[in-house]
Design goal:
The protein is an alpha/beta fold and 136 residues long. The protein has helices at 2-11, 22-41, 57-63, 111-125, and strands at residues 15-19, 45-50, 68-71, 80-83, 87-91, 105-109, 129-130. Helix content is 38%, strand content 23%. α1 packs parallel to α2 (22-41) and α2 packs parallel to α3.
Length: 136
């Protein structure tokens, strides 16, 4: 899954939107940071939403060099990515209950659904706390 997500980010031309868990934030940095850096240099807008806590605040600060990172409440769970408003990747299982090697995802290439999801995300994004306002 991370190989495919990495490929999607490498091919992005406009935007990368990610919603992940607190542990997922750590995995995203480890697996995707080089592609995030290259995408940012190409002018791709990268946004990442995740629960930020004492265990991952340093990771969030590193990611904030290449992306806008915002905090979501711990009970707001979701794992998906939207690339250029055209492609989506959903992770179907709770990463707290499954080993990353056994995770399952679905990739969709449909601008209609991707744009709808991006509009829903945008509505929520406005209510998520920017990283610089988080007190941990």
């Amino acid at each position: 899954m991370y190989n495919h997500l990495d490929m999607l980010i490498r091919d992005a031309t406009k935007s990368v939107t990610l919603m992940t868990t607190s542990e997922g934030l750590n995995r995203k940095m480890e697996a995707l940071m080089p592609s995030f850096e290259k995408a940012k240099k190409r002018g791709v807008k990268i946004r990442i939403a995740a629960p930020i806590n004492a265990n991952n605040v340093k990771i969030a600060k590193v990611l904030s060099k290449v992306a806008e990172v915002r905090n979501v409440s711990n009970n707001f769970k979701g794992r998906f990515s939207i690339i250029d408003g055209q492609q989506l990747m959903f992770m179907l299982l709770d990463d707290e209950k499954i080993h990353p090697n056994h995770d399952v995802g679905v990739w969709l290439n449909t601008d209609f659904f991707a744009k709808s999801m991006e509009q829903l995300f945008e509505h929520s994004w406005q209510r998520f706390s920017p990283l610089n306002r988080i007190k941990i």
